[in-house]
Amino acid sequence: MSEATAPTDAPSGSAPTPVTEGGERCLNCGAPLYGPHCYACGQPKKGLIRQFSSILGDFFDTVLSLDQRTFRTLFPLYFQPGFLTTEYFAGRRVRFVTPLRLYFFLSVIAFLVISLVARPDLSAGPHGLTIGSDNDPKALARLDPEARTKRLAEIEQAFVLVPEEQRKEAMDDLRREIDQELQSIARRRQGKAEGAPDSDDDEGVPHYSFNGKPWDPVANPVRVEWLSEAMNQSLNAEIGEVIRKAKGVRKDPAPLVKQVFSLAPQALFVILPLFALLLKFVYLFKRRLYMEHLIVALHSHSFICLSLLVAIALGKLETWTFGLGALPELFKWLLIAACTWVFLYLLLMQKRVYRQGWILTLLKFGFVGIAYTILLSLGMAATFVVSLIVL
């Protein structure tokens, strides 16, 4: 292969860079290029001086994990149980998004969407009118009469496209429940004025008990024998703060809901290795490495996150198509099918990956399902408590 010398206007003191006929050289060190990066110095072939659309594609790939592999991965992830896992075990990995990256991307998107759709809202659907907790009878009863009248008018206007008979019935029910709540508030206030014992505050929050008596940081505090006096005082101060926050949550649960959903991805990420450990125990005699079980856990949780997105989309479509013939019923049945597919998919995935008979697979699937439900419940309970503490 013949070589030519680099142009004579190269920087002073630098050796001439040989150029291979028909080949490309690294502009930094002059080594031959055999791919998108130089094997000698590591400099990428691509710089910023190129089409903006190409730079935008790199941004989505790096920051949002979106590239052509994502769309090539999502179809088998949802419709082919165990396919991505078996392909990864077989060494065919470059065509698909890596398990950890796939799980991270889908879990962030899923919990972001859930936090958005979980907000109280005004909506009309096949199951009636939904006004959200910010507009329920208790919330409306606490408003002053002028503000309450204005809010009721806004609610009625929001449902202007709902058939008049249904709208009138719903608004009459709402006004009747508001009247009942106003009467209940009046009775509680009258009881307080007459010196009746206050077992519940205006928001219906009961006293918290310890040792059969109402908890009190001074008269009846929580005491842990093996903790120092200072630590017990700190514990009771934290209990008092949590109780105060719990009362506030009953008035406005939105901040707590937001905090729970912000911590849920981290909690699920902590549960993942424990789930993989559970699979390792159940399939102990298969002699698989722990990392193989972790790959199974990542792919199965990625599928669950994707299923949540599908279910949310179908549920919204059912609501948005309310009154449009058979469409709501169609989306309702698709939603039922999507929920059923979750359990069937996970069973088929377990069968395909671990390659055991149906009887053993069903028994182990049932055990793993029960154990995982307990594990998930404990994780969500811990998330709720932590969210209440850091709120």
Structure description:
This protein has a two-stranded antiparallel sheet. The chain is extended and about 90 Å long. It has about 400 residues and is mainly alpha-helical. Helix 4 (about 100-115) packs parallel to helix 10 (about 290-320), helix 9 packs antiparallel against helix 10 and helix 11 crosses helix 12 (about 360-390). The protein is built from twelve helices and six strands.
Number of strands: 6
- Helix and strand run: EEHHHHEEHHHEEHHHHH
Q: Name the overall outline.
A: extended
Strand composition percent: under 5%
Assign a percent range to the helix content.
Answer: 55-70%
Radius of gyration: 30 Å
**First-last Cα distance:** 70 Å
* Structure class: mainly alpha
- Report the mean per-residue pLDDT as an integer: 77
Q: How would you characterize the largest beta sheet?
A: 2 strands, antiparallel
